[in-house]
């Protein structure tokens, strides 16, 4: 079992509580295979085994490369002698009664979760945005950012580190590093689509440097955008065609549902680079508070992550708490330069999904 201890998992299995106060779990417990509702730990089974067939230890793994034909075990599900079925789903709690109560609760759960992190052999992935800056302000650990020299993330991380009175170690990305890392990421994650590889690239290359420097755990601000309304498609609901929901709060729940697939990719990439991810903003207590936020505490006009930013002002300078950030693949310029490499190799933009075709050529 990875994640929560077996007693806590057993209680969650019996009660059906989707947010029992853990940081996630996945594995086998007394003959039952299970994975928490957010999918915070990867879990795979052999594709060729039917849902009614009993699994033995050789037919499931946390590492897809250990199986002949792996398929992801769905988050929130269990598998026992009665087959595979859903055990947990996201709750639908009532919103907080008022704005002040909501922000106080968000502040309490975020600070509690971050402060509980053991800093032994820990580094922090730092982009200079509010999510990673909260980790940097409250944890005594070195900061790392990955990006090309002229990238937004490198500049933002350096300026935020100055405001926090600390330093950030820059992992400068290069074309050679990208070409080497792409097949390694594809092998570890089982994914070759352009977006998945672009997102994983700066994480993977930063994590390699972290591991080389002697750290084996990497803290990340993962989950904050999904939980607290950080995406444009959430802010623009229901007009944005990328979400089906007709409210901001509904769109928030929709993007939270995408977390298991994203976390699986990132955890596998980081482990392949030699570190174990640490994600305090994905603790159950934080998820529970986020699900209780009204739409105007997620998005207010042009401001996203309203409640999180308000809570963060107790730990951060206002300039950082209010700062917008770019997605890692764009802020690091990894997406731009992978596209450039694809075109230089003859995979032109007029071709269908040209960057994915380039990735697949490197894997081959």
UniProtKB/TrEMBL annotation:
CDD domains: Asn_synthase_B_C. Keywords: ATP-binding, Nucleotide-binding. The keyword Nucleotide-binding applies. The keyword Repressor does not apply. GO terms for molecular function: asparagine synthase (glutamine-hydrolyzing) activity; ATP binding. GO terms for cellular component: cytosol. Residues 117-239, 255-346 form the Asparagine synthetase domain. Residues 1-22, 54-96 are annotated as: Disordered. Coiled coil: none annotated. GO terms for biological process: asparagine biosynthetic process. InterPro entries: Asn_synthase (IPR001962), Asn_Synthetase (IPR050795), Rossmann-like_a/b/a_fold (IPR014729). Pfam families: Asn_synthase. This is Asparagine synthase. The lineage of its organism: Archaea, Methanobacteriati, Methanobacteriota, Stenosarchaea group, Halobacteria.
């Amino acid at each position: 079992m990875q994640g929560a201890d077996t007693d806590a998992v057993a209680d969650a299995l019996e009660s059906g509580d989707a947010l029992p106060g853990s940081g996630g779990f996945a594995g086998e417990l007394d003959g039952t295979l299970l994975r928490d509702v957010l999918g915070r730990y990867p879990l795979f089974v052999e594709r060729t085994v039917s849902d009614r067939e009993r699994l033995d230890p050789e037919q499931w793994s946390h590492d897809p490369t250990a199986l002949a034909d792996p398929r992801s075990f769905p988050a929130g599900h269990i598998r026992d002698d009665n087959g595979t079925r859903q055990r947990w789903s996201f709750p639908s709690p009532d919103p907080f009664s008022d704005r002040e109560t909501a922000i106080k609760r968000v502040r309490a759960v975020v600070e509690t979760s971050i402060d509980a992190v053991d800093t032994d052999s820990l580094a922090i992935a730092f982009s200079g945005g509010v999510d990673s800056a909260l980790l940097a302000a409250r944890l005594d650990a070195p900061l790392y950012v990955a990006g090309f020299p002229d990238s937004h993330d490198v500049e933002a991380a350096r300026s935020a580190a100055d405001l926090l009175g600390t330093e950030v170690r820059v992992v400068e990305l290069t074309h050679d590093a990208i070409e080497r890392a792409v097949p390694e990421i594809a092998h570890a994650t089982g994914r070759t689509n352009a977006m998945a590889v672009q997102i994983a690239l700066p994480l993977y290359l930063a994590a390699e440097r972290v591991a080389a420097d002697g750290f084996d755990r990497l803290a990340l601000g993962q989950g904050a955008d999904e939980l607290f309304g950080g995406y444009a498609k959430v802010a623009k609901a229901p007009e944005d065609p990328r979400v089906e929901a007709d409210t901001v709060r509904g769109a928030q729940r929709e993007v939270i549902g995408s977390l298991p697939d994203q976390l699986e990719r990132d955890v596998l990439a980081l482990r392949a680079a030699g570190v174990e991810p640490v994600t305090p903003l994905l603790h159950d207590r934080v998820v529970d508070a986020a699900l209780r936020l009204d739409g105007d505490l997620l998005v207010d006009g042009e401001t996203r992550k309203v409640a999180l930013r308000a809570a963060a002002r107790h730990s951060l300078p206002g300039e950082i708490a209010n700062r917008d950030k770019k997605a890692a693949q764009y802020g690091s310029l990894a997406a731009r330069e992978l596209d450039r490499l694809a075109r230089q190799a003859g995979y032109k933009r007029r071709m269908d999904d040209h960057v994915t075709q380039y990735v697949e050529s490197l894997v081959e």
